[in-house]
Design brief:
Number of strands: 13
Largest sheet: 5 strands, antiparallel
Number of helices: 11
Number of domains: 2
Shape: globular
CATH superfamily of the largest domain: Aminoglycoside phosphotransferase (APH), C-terminal lobe
Strand content: 5-15%
Strand order of the largest sheet: 4-5-6-8-7
Radius of gyration: 21 Å
Helix content: 40-55%
CATH class of the largest domain: Alpha Beta
CATH topology of the largest domain: Aminoglycoside 3'-phosphotransferase, Chain: A, domain 2
Order of helices and strands: EEEHHEEEHEEEHHHHEEEEHHHH
Length: 394
C-alpha cells in the first residue's frame, strides 16, 4: 500500500455539507443541478457504522496478526468458515500494518488495518472514519465494515498499485486525472481551512529537538538541516503559496503510487487510504501526486513529469473537473494550473520531509525515514528558486 501516512491531530467537532451523497438529511441546491446536499457531523460514522468492536489486534508478528484478523472476521463475516480462511499480509506500508482475509473468493476479501505504534499522536481516527463514509457514499471508496481499538476493517478494491512505469502510460494517467477530478468535485461547504501548513507545523512540533538515536542525530547534523531553520522555511513558503489564493477542495492529500489502484480488467482507477483526506489547496493533490512519480524505495526525481506531460494531464483533469471537453479548456487556464502545481510541489516536499523526521523518531517499522526525509528536503531546496520563479505569461 506504499506510504500510509500520518493524519490529522485536531479532534474538534465540525459539520460538513456534501454533494453526491444520497443517504442522510438533505436539502435541494440550485447551485449544482442534479446533486444533493447532505449534512454529516464529524462523528456521523458512529451512528451509521454497524460494528464497533472492543478488542485490539497484536501485530507484533504474522501469527498474532492472523489470529487477530480471525477474531475480527468472526464478527464481521460469521458465515465464513474459520478453518478455511485465507490470508495475505501486505508488506508495502510503512506506517500501518495490513492483512487481507477471504473465504473462497479472493476478490471478496476484507482488509484489516492495524494502526502503527504511536500514530495516535498524529491521526484523528474519527476524521478518517468519517472520510471512509463520505467517499464510499460518493462512489470513491470502499465500505467501512467495523472499527476496533487499534484499527479498521473495510472492503477490498480489486486491482494492483500502479508502478513508476505504469503511471505515465495511457490510459492509466488519464484515469487518475479523471478520478482526481471526481474526488475534488465532492463539494464541501463548511470545509474549514486548508490542512497543509497547520499539519506541517504540527509535524515540526512533534519532531524532537534531538533524536534519541545518536547515529540519526549525526546524520541529521551532517545534512545541515535544523529544526529551527526548517520551521522558518515553512513560514516563508506559506506566505508565498497562500498569497496565490488557490481554491480549496476536499482532497486526498496522499496520492503516492501505492494508493492508486489500477483494475486492468475494468480499466479503472481507485484511490485508497484516507488518513489525510480533508480540505486543502486544490493544486496540492496534483503536485503531491506528481512528486510521487519518483517512487519511495528508490527515489529518482528524474521521473518528475515534464511540462508537456503536465499540460496533457492538467487539461484532462480540468475537463473532468469543469465538465467541459478538453478542447474547451483554455490554454491560459492550463498554464495557470501548471504554475500553481509546481509551486505547491515545494510544499509537498516540506510536508513529507517533516513527516519523515517525526517517523524517524517514533516508528518501529524497518524503513529509513530519516534518509527519506532528507531526500525530500533536498529536492525542495534544489527546485525552490525554479518553481517559485514560475509566472503566468498573460
Amino acid at each position: 500500500m506504499g506510504l500510509s501516512r500520518l493524519g490529522n491531530t485536531d479532534s474538534t467537532t465540525t459539520t460538513t455539507t456534501l454533494h453526491q451523497l444520497s443517504d442522510g438529511p438533505s436539502i435541494p441546491t440550485a447551485a449544482t443541478p442534479g446533486t444533493v446536499h447532505c449534512l454529516y457531523p464529524i462523528n456521523w460514522w458512529e451512528r451509521k457504522l454497524k460494528m464497533i468492536l472492543e478488542l485490539s489486534v497484536d501485530a507484533s508478528n504474522v501469527d498474532n496478526l492472523k489470529n487477530g484478523a480471525r477474531k475480527i472476521i468472526s464478527h464481521v463475516r460469521p458465515e465464513w468458515k474459520q478453518d478455511e480462511l485465507q490470508y495475505k499480509v501486505y508488506t508495502d506500508g510503512i506506517t500501518n500494518q495490513l492483512i487481507g482475509v477471504w473465504y473462497n473468493d479472493r476478490n471478496s476479501q476484507l482488509l484489516i488495518r492495524v494502526y502503527g505504534q504511536m500514530t495516535e499522536k498524529f491521526i484523528d481516527r474519527g476524521v478518517e472514519k468519517n472520510n471512509f463514509e463520505i467517499l464510499h457514499k460518493a462512489g470513491c471508496g470502499p465500505e467501512l465494515h467495523a472499527v476496533f481499538e487499534n484499527g479498521l476493517c473495510y472492503g477490498y478494491i480489486v486491482g494492483e498499485p500502479v508502478t513508476t512505469d505504469q503511471i505515465i502510460q495511457v490510459p492509466i494517467w488519464e484515469c487518475v486525472a479523471k478520478e482526481m477530478a471526481k474526488f475534488h468535485r465532492i463539494q464541501v461547504e463548511n470545509k474549514g481551512h486548508p490542512i497543509l501548513f497547520p499539519k506541517i507545523r504540527r509535524f515540526f512540533s512533534l519532531m524532537p529537538d534531538k533524536f534519541s538515536d545518536p547515529e540519526k542525530q549525526k546524520r541529521l547534523e551532517k545534512s545541515g538541516y535544523t529544526k529551527e531553520s526548517l520551521q522558518k522555511e515553512v513560514e516563508v513558503l506559506a506566505d508565498k503559496l497562500e498569497s496565490l489564493k488557490c481554491p480549496v477542495v476536499f482532497s486526498h492529500n496522499d496520492l503516492l503510487l501505492g494508493n492508486v489502484i489500477w483494475n486492468n480488467n475494468q480499466r479503472t482507477v481507485n484511490f485508497i487510504d484516507y488518513e489525510y483526506g480533508g480540505p486543502n489547496f486544490q493544486p496540492f493533490d496534483i503536485a503531491n501526486h506528481f512528486n510521487e512519480f519518483a517512487g519511495v524505495d528508490e527515489v529518482d526525481y528524474n521521473r518528475y513529469p515534464n511540462k508537456a506531460f503536465q499540460y496533457k494531464w492538467l487539461r484532462t483533469y480540468l475537463a473532468g473537473y469543469t465538465n467541459k471537453t478538453q478542447e474547451d479548456v483554455l490554454e491560459e487556464e492550463v498554464e495557470k494550473w501548471y504554475v500553481w502545481v509546481n509551486k505547491f510541489a515545494l510544499s509537498s516536499h516540506l510536508f513529507w520531509g517533516s513527516w519523515a523526521l517525526v517517523q524517524a523518531e517514533f516508528s518501529t517499522i524497518d524503513f529509513d525515514f530519516l534518509g527519506y526525509g532528507i531526500i525530500r528536503l533536498n529536492e525542495h531546496f534544489a527546485k525552490k528558486d525554479e518553481y517559485l520563479g514560475l509566472k503566468v505569461s498573460c
